[in-house]
User: Which sequence fits this backbone?
């Protein structure tokens, strides 16, 4: 999985409303969520993705953008799980104003 969340423009020193990504298990067997990590000092995430994700179910990842400086800012959320195609990435971007 590779997806993207763009936060638009946000004043430096403030935090955006969360942008939401849905992680869905469309397969036929459970997937164990091992870890969800964010990179980049300007982004933070919270999630409901704990333990096993049964077939046909999903969980939510919310990402907030709090730019430290002006200009384009980039980061990512990495999802490590038991799926053979793991590491999944959610690319993040926004502009500090």
Assistant:
């Amino acid at each position: 999985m590779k997806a993207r969340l763009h936060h638009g423009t946000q004043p430096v020193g403030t935090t955006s409303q969360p942008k939401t990504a849905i992680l869905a298990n469309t397969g036929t067997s459970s997937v164990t969520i091992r870890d969800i990590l964010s990179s980049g000092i300007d982004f933070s995430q919270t999630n409901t993705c704990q333990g096993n994700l049964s077939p046909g179910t999903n969980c939510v990842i919310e990402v907030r953008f709090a730019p430290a400086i002006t200009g384009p800012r980039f980061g990512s959320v990495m999802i490590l799980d038991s799926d053979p195609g793991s590491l999944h990435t959610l690319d993040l971007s926004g502009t500090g104003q």
Notes: Residues 13 and 68 are 6 Å apart (CA to CA). The first strand starts at residue 2 and ends at 10.
